[in-house]
Amino acid sequence: MPTPARLRVAQALHGVFGEGARVADTWDRGLGEDAALAQALLGLCLRRWGRLQAFGSARLKDPGRGLPLGTRIALAVGLAQLAWLPGVTDFAAVDEAVGLAGDRTLGFPAHRGLVNAILRQAARDRSALAADLEALPARLDRSDFAERSLLAALRPHGSGDSLEALWVTLARPPRPAFRALEEGPPEDLEPDPALPGCLRLAEGAPFPRAWLEAGGGMVQDRSSQALLAYLWDPTPGRILDACAAPGGKTTGLALRYPGADLWAVERQPRRAERLRRTLDGRGIQAQVVQADAAVWLAAGGAPFDLILLDAPCSGSGTLQKHPELVWLGDALDVSRLAEEQRRLLEAAAGRLAPGGLLIYAVCSWLPEEGADHREVLLATRPDLQPAPVWPSAFGSPADAQEGRTAFFRPDPAGWEGEGFQAFAFTRS
Ligand SMILES: C[S@@+](CC[C@H](N)C(=O)[O-])C[C@H]1O[C@@H](n2cnc3c(N)ncnc32)[C@H](O)[C@@H]1O
Predict the structure, then answer these.
(1) The CATH number of domain 4-140, selected from 3.90.1150.10, 3.50.50.60, 1.10.940.10, 1.10.540.10
(2) How far is the CA of 267 from the centre of ligand 1 (A)?
(3) Phi and psi for 238 in degrees, rounded to 5?
(4) Portions of the chain given CATH number 3.40.50.150
(5) What letter does residue 232 receive in the DSSP assignment?
(6) What is the pLDDT of residues 301-339, one digit of tens each?
(7) Is there an atom of ligand 1 within 6 Å of 294 CB?
């Protein structure tokens, strides 16, 4: 019987490759000390899935023969442990994977012998196995969606030839970033020298779950923190976070503008409820509205001095944090997402007060979710002017204006954070 950690990994892989489902935030809950092994193993299987599959197929008598998903998962789980987790014994790696293959729901019992034979052979020389896997083309581990995302990330910075180097970075687990909400964060969290207020987990330190659960701080990616550190002096009276859940950026806005009339809109009822609870728990005064933001904005009302539209998107900039997206991205309807973003953007622009600031953001590198919308606004809305509110280092050299940029898209080759595109406009 495989351990709960391996079973959970196999279940998550079935979800991704069998059902096209995202890996739930709670997938490793209750695993205790084994959670670290499970996280490492799932990360390796997702980040090296293409190469693991190619290695397994090449060892079949008929390499072109398709294998059931249960067999492919058992092989990937066994091979990944043998190749890259030296703390796992040969016996545990092979035996548990064979056990998985024999599981009626998660495996394919008729292939226990096949999985056993391939893994026993591989276990004879684990260094050679790792070298063989690493020698396979890295492109095998990237879907077309991932490839397109990387090219889009690099193109504005003229560094398209660094694609393989970027992929190596994205194929490593990310180092989490935090923001303190109370004094005295844990000592394991170190200030990020390049980003005031941003805290990073020290190398090898345990994840500060207790601190987060006690409300001492929140997880917030570097890109989001840099985005919210825009340089704009006015003090806005009315602020809207148009797509607000889970509330990280609403919290950032509330901390920056205490006393402002802050509104947070979220379409999904359960997420809106969670947003309400999170903001209450943090002592943040905001009017939470559960609605489609475009419909709600178009219904009229007083204009806003500051609007943040952190729109729903493909998440193509989050491949490092969510490696399953590499494999789920091809099925995404990006043009439908882009239509939705345009609908929200037009509605938001319609409620911006004269002199106000509109920030549109997506955690995606794809031009149809960012740069193209900006072009449309530039061409069709003479009342909106680009607002250079970020240091020019956060944009491409072509966007720089006197040390600032109105188009936030850090060069991924030198940026440790999620891929974001954001642009700012002000209204005359
Ligand atoms: C990228 S997330 C926002 C993340 C959030 N700003 C934060 O930093 O914590 C986008 C959110 O917009 C919500 N959403 C999607 N379409 C919407 C719409 N038409 N109106 C309002 N909210 C929407 C999604 O449910 C999701 O919670």
Answers:
(1) 1.10.940.10
(2) 7
(3) -115, 125
(4) 222-427
(5) -
(6) 999 999 999 999 999 999 999 999 999 999 999 999 999
(7) yes
